[in-house]
Design brief:
Order of helices and strands: HHHHHHHHHHHH
Number of helices: 12
Shape: globular
Mean pLDDT: 92
Low-confidence stretches: none
Strand content: under 5%
Largest sheet: none
Structural class: mainly alpha
Radius of gyration: 21 Å
Length: about 325
């Protein structure tokens, strides 16, 4: 580490690993409940286990993104974090709030939890991935704003690079699109329409910007390829991601009551979403090949290659196989998705 304040990233990475282990544990519980229907019932019903499982997925990724930003930004900006103490305070606030939320899921019936946490004041609970009580959602917003303030001020006081700019764009997008979790219209079509603005535009929009910037940072370190070359690739990936990912949201609008033209818009642009994922694979392998450098950190090198390949097959190839509306008609709502 070049800067003392980068050390705070370790806290976030440890928490991310622990939360990931929790996600796997609840995934195994659900798997056993598929086979043994009354496993851990009524202590942990299937719907509660699934809620904890998916929420832990979101939270450990957020901890990872935050830790990655706290490590990357000081090196890219060539300065210490704007407020290192704030990073530690936010870590404990976020971790404790997340733990209390999980305890609430497990200890209190969900309907009771909704009443206790003021869901009648602003109805935001009950939707997949966004089950968090109102206080938790508000806490996420506060933590996100404080986090973004800290890293944005760090970038503003230091050196500006393309990598830090793309990372900031992805992280600010993450926060902005989460605000749609507070919009819960009574019309079920509108509800699903805007629900996807959180879920889809996170996964197939801003998360790719964050991934691209982290990959670029790692590749500069481990390959020795000129920064200018890597940044040009990053610009291409960002452009492809934004063009295909945003309009590609249409593949979620096929069967929710929206106009039929979304079937064609969604099919065309979501089919193109495989392009930025493929570009990311080409980008990583090309940079490693150009570098021809025997870097001692093999783990980082293999992560950059493996991450791009898995993203390409997981979100790119498998997604493409059933993204066309004619195919999706038969796969929608099944385990294939």
């Amino acid at each position: 580490m070049q800067y003392k304040s980068q050390a705070v990233a370790k806290l976030y990475f440890i928490a991310a690993i622990a939360l990931f282990a929790g996600q796997v544990l609840f995934g195994l519980i659900m798997g056993l409940q598929y086979v043994v229907g009354d496993f851990l019932f009524p202590a942990i019903p299937f719907n509660v286990a699934r809620m904890v499982h998916t929420n832990l997925l979101i939270v450990w990724l957020l901890f990872g993104f935050m830790g990655g930003a706290y490590y990357l930004i000081p090196e890219e900006s060539e300065t210490e974090l704007y407020n290192p103490k704030l990073t530690v305070a936010l870590f404990w606030i976020f971790l404790v709030a997340g733990a209390l939320t999980v305890v609430g899921y497990l200890a209190v019936p969900y309907a009771t939890l909704a009443k206790l946490t003021g869901n009648d004041l602003l109805e935001t609970m009950g939707r997949e991935f966004l089950e968090q009580p109102l206080p938790t959602k508000l806490g996420i917003v506060v933590v996100a704003l404080a986090f973004l303030f800290n890293i944005t001020m760090t970038v503003l006081k230091g050196k500006k690079t393309s990598i830090s700019t793309v990372l900031l764009l992805g992280l600010w997008g993450l926060a902005v699109f989460f605000l749609f979790s507070f919009y819960n219209p009574s019309n079920p079509v509108k509800d699903k329409f805007y629900w996807w603005w959180v879920v889809h535009l996170w996964v197939e929009g801003v998360w790719e910007l964050i991934l691209g910037s982290l990959l670029a940072f790692v590749l500069i370190k481990v390959t020795g390829v000129d920064r200018e070359v890597i940044e040009k690739w990053l610009y291409v990936i960002v452009t492809l991601t934004l063009v295909t990912g945003i309009i590609g949201t249409g593949h979620h609008y096929y069967w929710i009551g929206t106009p039929s033209y979304w079937q064609w818009i969604g099919s065309i642009f979501s089919s193109l979403e495989v392009v930025p994922f493929f570009a990311m694979v080409v980008f990583c392998f090309t940079m490693v090949w150009k570098g021809r450098r025997d870097h001692p950190n093999k783990a980082a090198l293999l992560w950059s290659l493996g991450c791009s390949v898995l993203a390409f097959f997981g979100a790119g190839v498998w997604g493409f196989l059933h993204t066309l509306h004619g195919v999706n008609y038969y796969t929608h709502g099944t385990q294939v998705t």
